[in-house]
Amino acid sequence: MSEEPEKSSPATEQLEKCSMVVCSGDMDKVMAAFIIATTAASMGRETHMFFTFWGLKAIQKGNPTGSTFMERMLSVMNRGGIDRIGPSRLNFGGLGRWMFKKMMKEKKVTPLAELRQTAIDLGVELLACEMSMDVMGIKREDLIDEVADVVGAGSYCHLALQGKTLFI
Amino acid sequence: MSEEPEKSSPATEQLEKCSMVVCSGDMDKVMAAFIIATTAASMGRETHMFFTFWGLKAIQKGNPTGSTFMERMLSVMNRGGIDRIGPSRLNFGGLGRWMFKKMMKEKKVTPLAELRQTAIDLGVELLACEMSMDVMGIKREDLIDEVADVVGAGSYCHLALQGKTLFI
Amino acid sequence: MSEEPEKSSPATEQLEKCSMVVCSGDMDKVMAAFIIATTAASMGRETHMFFTFWGLKAIQKGNPTGSTFMERMLSVMNRGGIDRIGPSRLNFGGLGRWMFKKMMKEKKVTPLAELRQTAIDLGVELLACEMSMDVMGIKREDLIDEVADVVGAGSYCHLALQGKTLFI
After folding, report:
1. pLDDT, tens digit (0-9, with 9 covering 90-100), for B7-40
2. Is the per-residue pLDDT at B79 higher than 90?
3. Which 3-state string (H, E, C) describes chain C?
4. Does the CA dihedral A76-A82-A84-A90 come out positive or negative?
5. Shortest Cα distance from C67 to chain A (angstroms)?
6. What is the C-alpha to C-alpha distance for residues A161 and A20, in angstroms, rounded to an integer?
7. Residue from A50, A106, A124, A167 whose CB has the most chain B CBs within 10 Å, to mutate
8. Which residue of chain A has the CA closest to B23?
9. B28-37, B102-111, C41-50: lowest mean pLDDT where?
10. C3 has pLDDT over 60
11. Most-buried pick from A32, A63, C69, C101 (CB within 10 A)?
12. What number is the average pLDDT over the span C137-150?
């Protein structure tokens, strides 16, 4: 984005940014988010993903988090890590996750962790929401190293206003 | 959309496309999706709906699906068909669906199946996500005939980049 | 975008509207909605929030609603009011709501009710969906006075087509 308010050529139009808020931590939503992000990036778009609340699970390393009692309890109930993500329906305490993973593997669908790596390789910028990390007691070191930055909602809005944006 | 990359007149601007990903299979979300789609189409917009994951329920005929054990189990747990769609909250194994349907009927709200028909009549294009159909073992013949095409995420992204887009 | 339908200066481009549909009544989603809305408004954007289905909880006064048996039952199961809103996961009949509120208070995060007030003070327009109010038996007087209007989906679509829009 050349940052002049008026986009003056078709080329600039083609470079309109893509951004998304990933607020959900469900397998189907997170998978959709990464598929859209990798597709947009491979179409040459500058793409940004802003992970907040349950969405943070997708960019956590997966270690237990938190220092207070409640933060640690939350971490037990909702342990982060992309391999722990289950579907929004029919999870049945992990059975659904296992079943979906098996079904995806049989159909040779790229697993979530690989899809995230592809996104990173294609230059998709992963951003983490400062406020929800603070509320949930998640620290920078609990996130995978590839996360580009920990930012506030203002940064997301700024990006969103420059192109297409989705709330997932 | 006259399909030249450079939009050259106000008229073309008015014809900016509308698209949405319908990832959710809940009554409230699916209803909102069809209401927005019919409204956009009746305002003269070219409108496309891309159904993925649970959203596929809204464009399935409603027959049992799948050939492997897991696919068939999934179909039992999450049988497709627009009349089987329940609200995202307070469903209580179908009671909520029955109650909402009754309340909507009393208030003379268009039922989901009719709303979908209106969308089709107004020219809204219904697209099904190839990958999630493959994972869940849903075949083309399990979808209603009015579905225009079974496509990949690339097709959705291409449409989304040409106008307004929502993730539902 | 250089199309000059009416946008003729950088200033006008900066004034592209922001709108969102708030269909969800979960704490995390509602909080994200108000944070994005206040941020957009404080960046000088005309911002509109259209509350529908469960999202209506966020702009209800909190009194019991409905006149028919089913409407009143729904109000008991899903009582409105911004202080009754719980997280989309791990609510456990209100425990999650209490825990999250406590965690947010400890981290000095603005509570939902205050965040909504800030949005109102910044001129964010709160709109209520006529159809879902009708279905659920919610009346104008059940909503907080600051709600600007009770409108149909057409009004939302009209706003959405004028700028950035999100479905939450």
Report:
1. 444 444 557 899 999 999 888 899 999 999 999 9
2. no
3. CCCCCCCCCHHHHHCCEEEEEECCCCHHHHHHHHHHHHHHHHCCCCEEEEECHHHHHHHECCCCCCCCHHHHHHHHHCCCCHHHCCCCCCCHHHHHHHHHHHHHHHCCCCCHHHHHHHHHHCCCEEEEEHHHHHHHCCCHHHECCCCCEEECHHHHHHHHCCEEEEEC
4. positive
5. 33
6. 11
7. A106
8. A29
9. B102-111
10. no
11. A32
12. 95
Q: Residue C8: what pLDDT?
A: 42
In total, chain A counts a number of residues equal to 168
Whether residue A109 is predicted with pLDDT greater than 70 in this model: the reply is yes
Residue A163 corresponds to which tokens in the numbers above?
A: 């192109």
B23, B128, C42, C105, C155 from C120: Cα distances, Å: 31, 40, 11, 22, 19
CA distance A40 to chain C (A): 18
Question: Could you tell me which residue, B92 or C21, shows the higher pLDDT?
Answer: C21
The confidence score (pLDDT) of residue C73 equals 77
Residue C49 structure tokens: 């929030």
C115 Cβ contact partners less than 8 Å away, ≥ 6 residues apart: C31, C34, C35, C38
Other CB atoms within 10 Å distance of the CB of residue C77: 12
Residues of B in Cβ contact (< 8 Å) with A45: 161
Residue A30's nearest CA partner among A49, A14, A13 is A49
Query: Nearest chain B Cα to C134, which residue?
Result: B107
Please check the confidence at residue B3 and state whether its pLDDT lies above 50.
Answer: no
Structure tokens at C74: 């729904």
Residue with tokens 């919610």: C138
A108 to chain C, closest Cα gap in Å:
30
Query: Mutating which of C78, C161, C164, C166 best tests the B interface, going by the most B Cβ atoms within 10 A?
Result: C161
Cβ of C66: how many Cβ atoms within 10 Å? 18
Which amino acid appears at position A159 of this protein? L
Q: Say yes or no: B15 contacts chain C, CB-CB below 8 A.
A: no
Contact A157, C40 (CB under 8 A): yes
Chain A residues with CB under 8 Å of B5 CB are 10, 13-14
Give the rounded distance of the alpha carbon of C26 from its chain centre.
11
Identify which of A2-6, B69-73, C22-26 has the greatest average pLDDT.
C22-26
Q: Name the token pair of B20.
A: 């949405």
Q: What is the pLDDT of residue A60?
A: 94
SS3 content of chain B, % helix, strand, coil (to 5): 50, 15, 35
How many Å apart are CA A16 and CA A7, to the nearest integer?
Answer: 9
Residue A44 near residue C53, CB atoms below 8 Å: no
User: What average pLDDT does this structure show over C97-121?
Assistant: 86
Nearest by CB to B135, which of A29, A43, A107?
A107
